[in-house]
Amino acid sequence: MKMKRVIKLPDVSVGNSAVLSLRTKKFKKGLEEVRIGKFGELIIEMLPEDLAFTIFIPSEKAFERDLRLRVNDSLVGDKVNDTYAMLTRVLGFSAVPRMIYSDSVPFSKMTSYDSLSGFRLYISKDLDGMLVVNRVRSERVDFWKGEIVVHIMNGVIMDAEFEQSVQPDYNEEN
């Protein structure tokens, strides 16, 4: 019998406010708690709940480490629009218009799918059942919101151009 994990994400409304609610929700499946984080919630909110998607969401730590996005800093004032633009790019690279469960990915073979942006995702599974997508390993797999399958990743899936644009410029003088 296949168990489904269901997550409930809050409605986020930006409206005229320059400051978003910075509270994140914990999602439960039985006794297990899952924390998607505010940036993950915002990305998932961009997808229609009634259509099948799989999204490989960076963990909270990955957003901060890889994209230098911090909830208390990136979602306030005039940074909100830049943050949403970055989250939209992450969505394009990490969402696939179909449901992909971890148990549908074979251990011995790599599968590939095109993301919403056309970026090719190469998906395999480690022996412990965690997915690896373009060399980014999952932390948690197979959570749900409507028809959306969510996998929480220990990194950000992105193309080389976007990766270069978010890397610090060490040649820049301070």
Automatic annotation (TrEMBL):
Domain of life: Eukaryota
UniProt domain FAS1: residue ranges: 11-157
InterPro entries cross-referenced by the UniProt entry: FAS1_dom_sf, FAS1_domain
SUPFAM superfamilies: FAS1 domain
TM region(s), chain numbering: none
Record Pfam families: Fasciclin
Family, similarity comment: Belongs to the fasciclin-like AGP family.
Record protein name field: FAS1 domain-containing protein
Organism of derivation: Nyssa sinensis
